[in-house]
Input
Amino acid sequence: MSENKDPHVAQSGTSVESVKFVYDFTEGNKDLKDLLGGKGANLAEMTNLGLPVPPGFTITTEACKVYLDSGEEPAALRDEVSAHLEALEQRMGKKLGQADDPLLVSVRSGAKFSMPGMMDTVLNIGLSDTSVQGLARQAGDDRFAWDSYRRLIQMFGKTVLGVDGELFEDALEAAKAAKKVTVDTELEAADLKKLVTKFKKIVKSECGRDFPQDPREQMDLAIKAVFDSWNGDRAKLYRRQERIPHDLGTAVNVCSMVFGNLGPDSGTGVAFTRDPASGHQGVYGDYLQNAQGEDVVAGIRNTVPLAELERIDKKSYDQLMQIMETLENHYKDLCDIEFTIERGRLWMLQTRVGKRTAGAAFRIATQLVDQGLIDEAEALTRVNGAQLAQLMFPRFDDGYARGGGGVEQVGRGIAASPGAAVGKAVFDSYTAVKWSRSGEKVILIRRETNPDDLDGMIAAEGILTSRGGKTSHAAVVARGMGKTCVCGAEELEVDTKRRRMTVPGGHVVEEGDVVSIDGSSGKVYLGEVPVVPSPVVEYFEGRMHPGADDADELVEAVHRMMAFADRKRRLRVRANADNAEDALRARRFGAQGIGLCRTEHMFLGDRRELVERLILADTQEEREESLKALLPLQKKDFVELFEAMDGLPVTIRLLDPPLHEFLPDITELSVRVALAESRQEPHENELRLLQAVHRLHEQNPMLGLRGVRLGLVIPGLFTMQVRAIAEAAAERRNAKGDPRAEIMIPLVGTVQELEIVREEADKVIAEVEEATGTRLRLAIGTMIELPRAALTAGQIAEAAEFFSFGTNDLTQTVWGFSRDDVEASFFTAYLEKGIFGVSPFETIDKDGVGSLVKSAAKAGRATRPDLKLGVCGEHGGDPESVHFFHEVGLDYVSCSPFRIPVARLEAGRAAVTAAGSDHR
Output
């Protein structure tokens, strides 16, 4: 990356002593996120733009990495921090914690990628028993000073010293109860002074030490706490959820304090340059008078809409609007801004490219194209397949919700993150995780969430809070995860201790009662609201046209982004489909052929009896009779498939699974035989079946008699299937159709297997051509799903016209995993321990499986330059894997019909950003 060419950044072979670990806000820029973290880089960028940013400095991620690797800060760090602190003190005209006029600073985390609330922040560092008096005199406000001090002890105690935050909250609630007030702003200076004494006693009792009075000790301990928070449980969990690498480390920002809690002419807020929930342009955000920044994000006090600031402080409001426009035009994207107003003066504390909902991402991308700020290629980097998949989820049936039907609307909050979520009410994260693991769908209900609730938020279908706004912790994290969320439903009285919620009218919702929440409207229902297809799915199905009167702007935005992607992509996208119905749906969703038709799915239902007869055949005549009965049925299937996919390639995999899968369960069959014998009833057929099951039983069927081995061991099986394909293609061609069949031989491990099957297949195809007078062009290829096949791909390509990588089985055989067994037994532990960042069955293992795909593709094309290459495992629809397949040079990916739009979009994104994108 370009920033790593900076002479101050550690390079291979560079001594730690020569590395620059601290940067003033005037020294960096927005492109140094790797080094300064997102927050530090953007503070520097705003400083460069001449915006009002409080002075400060950033400790780099390199310092954090040294600390995390060695357990100690770099030797040079203390002196660098001292030098920058001294420069800050000179600029501000006062020293950190100075008794008569203290400089106070905040210490805030700031990783490369935004991790809202997952790491630590401490405000008001520098306050002590002495300097609090000086702050009070300078501000002319005792209440403000003692409020700031109690906030410092509370934050420092919880985040740095590890004190249970509930102890401070309980003491605060007790102080309000004693005063008979409901909000902390109604506590007076004397009350807060007593609270400081109480908080210090809590620290002494819990930590065995006094709250530190030395301001430099406070700052140094806070910096270490931020470093340590990178490896905190909630931070690691969030990184796993968001697929953020664990080795990036966090920067630390030390910033001179500005105060929003100096009175009614002060305040703090969060603003968005567009609505992060919908993407609509306008004034969006929350503002809180007489408060510090954490109050807004925590959702502890309910905010007012940002538009109210125009009435409260028009001068600051107008300046903020100008800054928001400047930032959006500069970053060319939705910006998320934190600001503080100190006695009528506006300060910018943070900006970043804002997290947004899936719908907002698509709308904003097309809006910015229309404004001329970005081009189509850049627009594709602003959306992703996971967001598109979210837009395809069902939504609530509004007509049912309005009409009753056993559900009742019991409240309405702020529509913080869209979607339709139904589940049983739970009131703490532990229960949410526990019930979810038992298969229950749950809605996590809290007064407000905090970072400790992350595991419960991940487990829940949706989140409902009675406090907080669009910028609260619950809202920001839910939007980032694509979770449905309704915040600030004030009319709902949430009692987490008694595990219940009281709704208007007095009805009590107990834990386990079913509730439904609509993150698009903010409505909360008691009972289960049915869902209907999303308008985006209706568009892909062809039932809604983007230009129609009933099509909303979201459908239009999705349509345009899909058109962008289709124009840019090189990878073609096919479908895994086994019947005409699925094929037609896939074609509506944009499939350019079938990459995998699993013929074993055609042998189920009424046809299972014919397969049983084939397996039980004792003579060649009986076997041929069974195959003869199956032939017309297979042919009919293929005719329908070729008709549905007329003019597009259809890759048909010959029978792959072990034959015993078509026979009854051995236990069930044994019971039937035993019962029949005990009743002296005829059971010859069941007995023959049981004997066949025993004969075909394998210790490890995945590695046994299946795939090409079936075709070699059971005479006539594969030739029957090839004949059915050839006759179906001839029938379609004679009906003026354009069938493009491709025959795929599964589980080949050596070229000799493929050569034998191919020779038989070519003979059958020639017979059909002669019998029908039709010239058929049927390609024959193989699945590469065994390591040996990948390693000998150059030889196999001599007999194959195409390769399709079966990455499901290839992953199993490379890792030595039986998927059905390992996912249930130890995958969770592997993910939690960081052995996997993500399951290798979900996203391609680039270093192992991916390396084989890459080398096999190269070797195959060295033998046969026109070799067609595709992938038909589940990875074909995984966004990250699609980028890898683009880079390797495959011709197509194949996935389930529902994932085709996602694969199309990601193929377009891969074409414009082959190295991926840091945009989050």
Notes: Confidence is low (pLDDT under 50) at residues 1-16, 915-920. The radius of gyration is 33 Å. The chain has 37 helices and 31 strands.
